[in-house]
Amino acid sequence: MSKPLGEYLKEEKEAEEAAARPPPSAHATSPEIDSPGSDPSMKLSDFTADDDSVSFGLQRLKEIAEAAEKKKKAEKNKKKKEKKKMKKLQAEKDVGSSKTEGATPSDEDDSTKSEEGSGTCEKSESAELAKKDPLSPEKCTGTSATPPSTGKAKKSVKLKLQRPDEAPKQTTSLLMSYQSMRSPELSALIVESSKESSAAMVEEAWERLKKSYVYYRGKPVGTLAAMDPTAEALNYNQVFVRDFVPTGLACLMKNPAEPEIVKNFLLKTLHLQGREKMVDNFTLGEGVLPASFKVSNDSDRAKETIVADFGGSAIGRVAPVDSGFWWIILLWSYNRCTRDHALVELPAVQNGMKLILNLCLSDGFDTFPTLLCADGCSMIDRRMGIYGYPIEIQALFYFALRCAMQLLKPERGGKEFLERIDKRIIALSFHIQKYYWLDFTHLNNIYRYKTEEYSHTAVNKFNVMPESIPDWVFDFMPLRGGYLIGNVSPARMDFRWFLVGNCIAILSCLATPDQAIAIMDLIEERWEDLIGEMPLKIAYPALEGHEWRTITGYDPKNTRWSYHNGGSWPTLLWLLAAASIKTGRPQIAKRAIELAEQRLSKDGWPEYYDGKTGRYIGKQARRYQTWSISGYLIAKKMIENPSNLLLVSLEEDKKIAKPRLARSATV
Ligand code: GLC
After folding, report:
1. Which domains does the chain have, with CATH numbers?
2. CA of 568 to the centre of ligand 1 (A)
3. Residue 91: exposed, middle, or buried by beta-carbon count in 10 A (0-12, 13-18, 19+)?
4. Nearest CA to ligand 1 atom 12
5. Alpha carbon distances (Å) from 491 to 166, 444, 449
6. CA distances (Å), 163 to each of 63, 138, 169, 595, in order?
7. Considering the entire predicted model, what is its pTM?
8. Is the Cβ–Cβ distance between 287 and 359 less than 8 Å?
9. What would the pLDDT profile of 481-538 be if each residue is shown by its tens digit?
């Protein structure tokens, strides 16, 4: 009997950990963009080392498989010999009525069956179940089919039966390695064919991306959110600022880079910022950037016009707080890639940045350095209980502040902004690192919190009631790992996991190096929950029942394990890839990319997937969603050439760490 896959994976992981890191390789001097010399804290050798450890891991897996194969053959021979001996004995004794002890014919049959290939034995049974219930998961290990939204995901790796239409998209996943390890030739063939299909997928993705370009006066200025001919366009025929970020990055990471569309996009959206923005009779802040814009053709007047949405048409009428931050971050990436300082130094660009920052840095009644937001003000643009101080916005705010520090010129009031930014990033990083961080120890502390404490000596500063800790978090929290929770405000900690905030915190160094590593540990420890069958869960866990009713307001689009409420979004692949490369663990990104490659193109690049493990194409998901395409492309680009990470990642600022220590002494 062969070993369970879980054991192979464990051994493979142990082998990876034991592997010695090879010296820095050619990646470290990649000519594609800046030499890492300008970024002393970036250790590109780490990436290459772990790259090697991945192939080392596969090699080790193969070795284990071969050893298992040998052992099995030897056992089989032994059995055969024993059987012969028994037969001989039987004949000699001439006992016709009684059967020999040991292997009965049926036992023998069973053992041959299981030797012939794991998974086949229960295939018919499971296929039968699947036939009865189209939503039943085709699991090899289970005897009963469970619906996607119930039951806790088992931590053991299950062998998944292949759906007939999945067959051509084989990948080099560990699962595949296991299935094919009986024959090294077969294994090599699969690796080869997966390389080919992945190359074809990349080619298709670039083609589709190109088709989604939106032109204004003959120049590309952005990309459509989706190009699904079978679904109602709604606002998916617009250029979304946040959606364009992975597309812009793809154009910058391309070899050679195609920065023109990024520049046009930055300038066009800046131009839109200058418009007067009103919702009913209320005028929005000058710095607000649109959530999206649309180029309309007035054929009668042979004129193109741009209509922008600043939240006035959006569902819920909320302005996109994230747009301005993404705009500054993309400007920084553009500048880093092209060294086109002329664009950054344009007075209009400098002014645009100041207007965005002014919205967030102005004095008010705040006692926290975090930014107070309405529900639905970011990628999660419907009511999902993220109002208050959501981690996604705080992390983007921090990232944008740090980018602005590098982009702002001291002239024309810039110096004053730089001083304000400096103070804010110190306070913000202190606040997030201290109050948003949750690991096993912190959870235990909160669980034992005293309440109703008064004065600056209070430990439970926000008066959080331990009874408000949801049950699921005690099971979810591994001994190894941790994460930044969703929200912190008076008497309220939203313990949900949000991927964007955590990955952005890693890329911007808002998370400390130890926290960054712990976040990646958590992703590995909770792989089934956070990645499942299709990367990646936008939030975990889903709101269900009473919570869903009260928090989402009965939102039929955000039912449990769907859309923003625990749905899986392929576009997030790039954030995971970047974070895992930055923390020196590209194998995490590779594993997730391989999973996505099994279905993404075949399913038509959906916007999101539904279900606890992300198995089902989202109920209302658009197909040919542009940021699903570009998210995949840049994840691939960064894995291929880890120096591409430098376009989306900041190095640690040692200055920020100092005051943090001084202040923590008073807590
Ligand atoms: C949905 C998403 C939003 C995205 C938009 C366009 O509204 O929630 O994050 O920007 O679609 O793709």
Report:
1. 202-647 (1.50.10.10)
2. 13
3. exposed
4. 225
5. 48, 17, 12
6. 29, 9, 11, 15
7. 0.74
8. yes
9. 999 999 999 999 999 999 999 999 999 999 999 999 999 999 999 999 999 999 999 9
